Amino acid sequence: MTTSFEALLPGTARALLHRVAVAQSEGRAPSLVGAVVRDGALVWSGSRSCVDGHAPDADTQFRIGSITKVFTAVLVMRLRDEGALRLDDPLELHLKGTGAGEVTIAQLLSHSGGLTAETPGAWWERSSAALRPELSDVLGERPFLQAPGRRHHYSNPGYTLLGSLVEELRGRPWEEVLRREILEPLGMDRTTADPVAPHAGGWAVHPWADVMLPEPSEDLGLMAPAGQLWSTAADLARFAAFLAEGDERVLGAASVAEMRAPASVPGEGEWEGSYGLGLQLLRRDGRTLIGHTGSLPGFVACLWVSVEDGLAGIALANATSGPLVGAVAADLVRIVAEAEPRLPEPWRPLPAAEVDAELLSLTGPWYWGTYAYGLRLGPERGVVLEPLKGAGRRARFRALPDGGWVGLNGYYEGETLRVVRRPDGSVSHLDLGSFVFTREPYEPGEVVPGGVDEAGWRGL
């Protein structure tokens, strides 16, 4: 058994270790490692093992399966940010002759391309990559199950296509690009395509007896971008910090936030979660978690990040099935969030350069019909428009260089908010995507579409 407490309270650390111990025992895993990241730093790790005195630690490698897909997605987003491709480009524009060229890059990233979930032929995770030397062997004769863009359908071959796209545009192997562009900048030197000691061995535990069987460890070949990697809790902690905040050496905060946004319609029965651009999204315990699960014969893994709480939970086990590491990682986040809630940032006034009398004069109540809204200043001369009571459409707006603001979230995302002035320069009203906001409800005059009854407000 190994633990490290650091900044967490002893009671919190004990609860985390208890959760890991229960998961290893009830899940009948040879070993299980859990870890917690808070505000970008690894603050706790703990493990349990079936062999006394030989428990793994945060530097022990486990195979992480489909968490690999997040790394591949980051490489694709880097190409987008460099202008080498657009997310709505059809694959055929950059990677010729696949037989699936009509699917867009965004659809591949979000598993909404309509492609099959698995490759044809032998179980690819447990068979030699020599059986699939070409993309045609990965996709088969009928790569599509449904029309692209309709709904989420998880596809391992789709990420093989994305890995091949990276290789085509970079002119180098996927593994080399990954190391140079993500692993080295983030200091993830214990994340590799092949296992490097110390690493866990993969095991299958018999479902009806307490006996084990070693699992083979195959090189995935062309399927590597979908699930090849080995990593550690400590390295995944660094990656979790990146997924929460971005890193200009790899991918900026805005692009990482774009990856975290829902990008495909969930499949039937999957409404508790969604999928972004390479990231799974989950609502659990009243919070949004982003990250990914992973599995390959002998291993299960999960990384969940709560950006709002500044927390991430990691769970790694060397068993084909049994321990529910997705629930474990989510519970590690919950335990810390509830026991040691994040302290809010101190209130501070806006910088003087971001405030002037004209902006201040726009703040306060505005009315869309009879709905009351409040406009307040945000950072960098942005504004927030929110209902003053009851339900309504709340949105943040970013200032535009030529005046006005653009919506950043919710119903008004991408819509333009602007100030409309009278001939004398005074403010008449606010226009938000054709909606008129006036200082008084149904203010008399020619501003409100359809006009206002000249008799004005009246009683019964």
TrEMBL record:
GO MF annotation: an example: hydrolase activity
Keyword Hydrolase: yes
Boundaries of every Beta-lactamase-related domain copy: 25-337
Pfam families: Beta-lactamase, DUF7586
Gene3D superfamilies: DD-peptidase/beta-lactamase superfamily
Enzyme class: hydrolase
Keyword Phosphoprotein appears in the UniProt entry: no
Domain DUF7586 residues, every copy: 355-439
Domain of life: Bacteria
Keywords associated with the record: Hydrolase
EC number: 3.-.-.-
PANTHER family (alphabetical): D-ALANYL-D-ALANINE CARBOXYPEPTIDASE, D-ALANYL-D-ALANINE-CARBOXYPEPTIDASE/ENDOPEPTIDASE AMPH
Name used for this protein in its record: Serine hydrolase domain-containing protein
Species for this entry: Streptomyces bikiniensis
